[in-house]
Amino acid sequence: MRLPNFQTLARRMPVWTARVSRPFLAGLGLLAAAQAEARPFTDAAGRVVEVPERPARILAAGPPASVLLYTLAPDRMVGWIRGPTPEEKPYLAPGTRDLPATGRLTGRGGSANVEAVLGLKPDLIVDVGSTGPTYVSLADRVQAQTGIPYVLLDGHFDRTAESYRRLGALIGAQGPAADLASAAEAIVAEVTRAVATVPDERRPRVYYARGPKGLETGLGGSINVELLDVLGARNVAAGAGPGGLANVSPEQVLAWNPDVIITQDSGFRSGIAADPLWSGLKAVREGRVYQAPALPFGWFDAPPGANRLIGIRWLASLLYPDLFPRGLDAATRDFYRRFYHVDLDAAQVDELLSDATPGPKP
């Protein structure tokens, strides 16, 4: 029998329970027994969850949780949502590069296999992102089915420092969490202080071109484009209404005619200047097409997690170069050492920043 993923399981829980093997259900009983010595923890959704005193094997439910957990406690990860690529591995701590892929429990394309996940013997599941009813329901059902405590943390960018402190309190790593939270606050404060001086007429209109065709974007309030708000930039897609990610038409992009285009897709960026669909746009004519670095995680999005802390500094220097005249080399090295647990050499810094400059003009 092919076991369902967690999202399917949440919908079919009574039926599924009747079909699984007795040894598997016995394993669930052992997991429940392991939680006997537990303490209450109130997560970002207001749920009170009984958690281990100091969880040692932690499973991330989705990509933002994976980043937050890796930056704070890489030694307690049981796996990655997907295995790191050969290009990503040099930018990760050696001890984490070959951890198994677990699949994702939440978000778009949930793929985690129930028995495989339980085989990793996690004593805690952490999700970072929305704390709305859909995710609360999923967390409650997965927790009830597996016996593993499942905690939700707020994934919005302006809650990054708070989420570090909450995760530190959750796993007994308050000291390191406080250090990362303070570093996050300092990065944001430096940028927002400078951007606050920018008059409205200098705040660019920006389009986030997601995917190989550049026709997926984040609408108003989307977590995927939060950095634009922090930087005082105007998301052109916000005029289409509130929402998350959405597909838009070429005609709509032409009508928006943005000042700046941001992408994380190298193929899209390299071909945009020669594409008649895009070449007439102001951003393309003026060479203001920026590709966000993406090793080991995206700097602007993908995922919308703590990885965006370095992205805010990068994008600020491109949107407002007069306010941030210093290069990014030192800031990049410091961020990767502090958050990603790697000391970058000069070649790695060059690789990260080589494409993170304005795109070619037509």
List keywords for this structure.
2 domains; 12% strand; globular; single chain; 3-stranded parallel beta sheet; alpha/beta; Rossmann fold; 4-stranded parallel beta sheet; 362 residues; 15 helices; 11 strands
User: How big is the Rg?
Assistant: 21 Å
The N- and C-terminal alpha carbons lie at a distance of 55 Å
* CATH class assignment of the largest domain: Alpha Beta
CATH topology term of the largest domain: Rossmann fold
- In terms of structural class, how would the helical and strand content be classed? alpha/beta
Strand content: 5-15%
Helix content: 25-40%
Q: What is the CATH homology-level superfamily of the largest domain? A: Nitrogenase molybdenum iron protein domain
The coarse overall form would be globular
The overall strand count is 11
On the 0-100 scale, what is the average pLDDT?
89
Unreliable runs: 8-35
In DSSP terms (H or I, runs of 4 or more residues), the helix count works out at: 15
- Please state the second-level CATH architecture of the largest domain: 3-Layer(aba) Sandwich
Order of helices and strands: HHHEEEHHEHEHHEEHEEHEHHEHHH
Largest sheet: 4 strands, parallel
Spatial strand sequence of the major β-sheet: 8-6-10-11
Number of domains: 2
Short description:
40% of the residues lie in helices and 12% in strands. It has 362 residues and is of the alpha/beta class. It has a four-stranded parallel beta sheet.
How would you characterize this protein structure?
This protein is an alpha/beta fold and 362 residues long. It has 15 helices and eleven strands. The protein has helices at 6-11, 13-19, 22-34, 63-72, 114-119, 133-146, 160-171, 174-195, 226-230, 250-256, 266-271, 282-285, 308-319, 329-339, 346-353; strands spanning 38-42, 48-52, 58-60, 124-129, 150-154, 205-209, 216-218, 234-235, 245-247, 260-263, 289-291. Helix 6 (133-146) links the parallel strand 4 (124-129) and strand 5 (150-154). Helix 7 (160-171) packs antiparallel against helix 8 (174-195) and helix 8 (174-195) packs parallel to helix 13. The termini are far apart.
